[in-house]
Structure formats: structure tokens, C-alpha cells
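Retry 2 of 3 after timeout on previous attempt. Resubmitting C-alpha cells to design endpoint.
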């Protein structure tokens, strides 16, 4: 029976209406702070996980994991592809021709990154083929001068499927009029939507059409590869290039997108640290509420001591009471955080529709929607740390309660 005294009295104190409403207010603020801190921490971590996922699947699914190229072009690219794909670390490879271009329709002009691709090979190294809204990669046929582009770019140019558009490339032609840039009419045969910045500035044409336009002959600029382990791309690419005869230039996604990925990882860690500090502040509000409660309940403590309660039991009473505040706050915050993390995209869409604003602009950020991915291990450590902080916050005021002298407490009663 003695072992249940701290639990019985501690839970009784939690349920009781206190005479000192200020203490009740502080306790409520402590609980609300824990609820908000845990909830926001789970939601923010889930959103950062979503950005991490989108970075890996969408952005890094579009850009090359690695490239092997030569400034003067590569004519024996089929042999190079066979060599690269012989490596167990390489999933697939594809030739490419890369250039800058200017698309023009009526009064609209847009600069683009122009990629000459072979649709058969390119589908193995890029996710673009899985995200077509209209048309497909297979509609890029040699000699037909078709072009595919992102949906945002097509809307900016006011371009519909099948309509012609003028492409200007930085290759000059010498004529009687002097040096003039090279123009060519293309026809829109496909529109993709990846939900990333590529939707605004990437255009794809057939590799043979690019070779004709840029006078490459039978050469390509390089070969891009897709590796099995995304985070091992740099090492794989360099190891492959070392054993190649001749002079080759290699690159990988860490050079083109690495800073963005590192920034996301750093932001994730810093935001988590800041929000844990907020949870800590809310947890240690329990200290102030319990200290004032101990002061308020000194008479009750003295009576319990005179009735035979030990200092350990008195300490247990206030540990139970403070822990109840922490447990309720953390559990409610966890449930709300899980619910928010699973529905954050719908919540943001609702806010955008109500206030007619765009939270993420695809022309500024690498995606144009709010991603979220709930990791249960994140929920576990957030809940665990919050509960530990709440428990630690109860120790000092509970210890002070156990040291109350009955004679001193009852002297002025």
C-alpha cells in the first residue's frame, strides 16, 4: 500500500482545483508549451525529411549522377557506354549533347538548358519519362525536330502541343550578312511536370537533331551514368575515369547540386536543435510550477510527514505530479504532430487557396509543393527526449519538497 501513496496523492494533486490559480496557470502553460513544441518539432522534421526525399528522387532523378566527357567530343561513345555499364556500381548510361539555347514564340523568349538525348537510353538514367503530362519521350524521332519541355516553360511561352517554336543556339553561321546565330524551327511533342526547377528551364531534343544543329557529326559531348548508390557517385565516377585511356573530364551531382543538398541537411539539424531547445524551455516551466506548488503545499507536506510519510514518498508525489504534466503534454503533442505531418500538404494547399498565395514558387525553389515524410524513428527520439526533459525538470522541486521540515512548516499554521 505504501508504494502506491505517491501515485495516488500525485494524481490527486493533478486533478484537484488549486486555491492558487496562478500555479494552475503556470502548469497549463507548461503543458501547452510541451504540446506545441513536440507537435511543431515532429511536423518540421517530417517536412525536412520530405525535402530530403524530393531532393533525392526528383531533382537528383533528373540531373546526372555522374558524367564522363571530352571537350572535343566523343565519337566512340557506344564502347564507352559498354565500359561504364560493366561496372557493378553503374545501373545505366546514356549519351548526351548539351548546350544553351533561346526559345522564341511571338514576343516571348526564354533561355533554356538544351539536352540532346537518345530516348531509348535516356529513360534508363532519368525519371523524366515517368512525369509526362502530354506526349512522351518516344515522340522524339530523328530528323523530325521535335522538342519536349517542362509545363511551366510551355506556359510561359504560351505553347500548345504540336505548335512550332524557334530555337536559337550559340553556334554562328557565316553569310553575306556577317556572323548570325543559328535558328531552327522545332515542334512541341511533349510536356513533362517533375515539380522541380527543371520544369522552368530544361528542353530535350533528339540527339541526332542536336548533332545536326550544333555540327557535332557522329560525336556526343559525353555519357551520363546512373549509379546504384547515390551517395557513392563521386567515388564511382572517378574510379571509372582513372582506368579510361585518353583524357576525360568527369563530374557528379555533388558538384552541381551538392551545396543544395548539404544546405538541406544543415537546416534540418539546426532546426531540430532549435526546436528541441523550445521543448526544453517548455519542460523546465514545470520546474517553476512545481516549486511554487511545493511552497503552496508545505502544510500538506508537513501533515504527511507527521503521519509517517518518508522523504522518498514525498519526493515521489511531486515527481508523479510533474511527470503527469509532461506525459500528457508530450503524448498530446505527439498525436497532433503525427496528424499534422500526415496532412501538412493538404493544410498548406488549403491556406494557399484561402489567401491566394503560393508558399513555394517553382521558379525560386527546386520544388513547387510542400513535401512531408513521417519517420517513426524521428517520432521516437522526439518523444523520448521530451519525456526525459520533463522527468528531469521534476527532480529539483521534488527534492526540495522532501527536505521540508514539518516543524518549520507547521509553525505558523
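Retry 2 succeeded. Sequence:
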Amino acid at each position: 500500500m505504501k508504494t502506491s501513496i505517491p501515485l495516488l496523492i500525485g494524481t490527486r494533486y493533478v486533478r484537484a482545483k488549486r486555491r492558487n490559480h496562478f500555479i494552475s496557470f503556470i502548469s497549463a502553460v507548461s503543458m501547452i508549451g510541451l504540446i506545441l513544441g513536440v507537435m511543431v518539432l515532429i511536423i518540421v522534421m517530417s517536412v525536412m525529411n520530405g525535402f530530403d526525399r524530393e531532393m533525392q528522387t526528383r531533382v537528383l532523378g533528373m540531373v546526372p549522377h555522374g558524367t564522363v566527357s571530352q571537350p572535343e567530343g566523343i565519337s566512340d561513345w557506344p564502347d564507352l557506354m559498354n565500359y561504364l555499364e560493366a561496372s557493378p556500381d553503374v545501373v545505366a548510361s546514356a549519351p548526351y549533347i548539351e548546350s544553351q539555347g533561346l526559345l522564341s514564340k511571338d514576343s516571348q523568349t526564354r533561355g533554356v538548358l538544351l539536352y540532346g538525348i537518345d530516348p531509348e537510353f535516356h529513360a534508363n538514367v532519368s525519371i523524366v519519362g515517368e512525369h509526362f503530362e502530354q506526349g512522351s519521350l518516344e515522340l522524339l524521332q530523328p530528323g523530325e525536330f521535335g522538342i519536349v519541355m517542362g509545363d511551366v516553360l510551355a506556359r510561359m511561352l504560351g505553347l500548345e502541343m504540336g505548335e512550332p517554336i524557334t530555337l536559337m543556339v550559340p553556334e554562328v553561321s557565316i553569310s553575306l550578312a556577317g556572323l548570325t546565330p543559328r535558328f531552327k524551327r522545332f515542334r512541341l511533342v511533349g510536356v513533362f511536370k517533375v515539380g522541380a526547377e527543371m520544369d522552368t528551364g530544361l528542353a530535350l531534343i533528339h540527339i541526332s537533331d542536336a548533332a545536326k544543329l550544333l555540327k557535332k557529326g557522329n560525336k556526343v559531348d559525353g555519357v551520363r551514368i546512373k549509379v546504384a548508390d547515390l551517395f557513392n557517385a563521386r567515388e564511382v565516377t572517378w574510379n571509372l575515369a582513372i582506368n579510361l585511356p585518353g583524357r576525360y573530364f568527369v563530374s557528379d551531382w555533388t558538384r552541381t547540386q551538392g551545396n543544395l543538398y548539404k544546405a538541406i541537411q544543415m537546416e534540418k539539424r539546426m532546426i531540430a536543435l532549435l526546436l528541441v531547445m523550445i521543448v526544453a524551455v517548455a519542460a523546465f516551466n514545470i520546474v517553476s510550477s512545481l516549486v511554487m506548488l511545493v511552497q503552496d503545499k508545505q502544510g500538506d507536506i508537513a501533515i504527511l510527514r507527521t503521519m509517517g510519510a518518508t522523504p522518498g514518498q514525498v519526493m515521489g508525489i511531486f515527481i508523479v505530479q510533474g511527470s503527469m504534466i509532461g506525459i500528457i503534454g508530450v503524448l498530446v503533442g505527439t498525436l497532433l504532430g503525427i496528424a499534422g505531418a500526415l496532412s501538412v500538404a493538404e493544410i498548406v494547399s488549403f491556406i494557399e487557396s484561402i489567401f491566394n498565395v503560393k508558399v513555394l514558387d517553382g521558379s525560386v525553389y527546386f520544388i513547387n509543393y510542400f513535401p512531408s515524410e513521417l519517420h517513426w524513428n524521428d517520432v521516437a527520439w522526439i518523444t523520448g527526449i521530451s519525456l526525459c526533459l520533463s522527468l528531469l525538470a521534476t527532480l529539483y522541486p521534488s527534492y526540495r519538497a522532501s527536505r521540508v521540515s514539518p516543524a518549520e512548516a507547521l509553525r505558523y499554521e
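Attempt log closed. The first strand starts at residue 66 and ends at 74.
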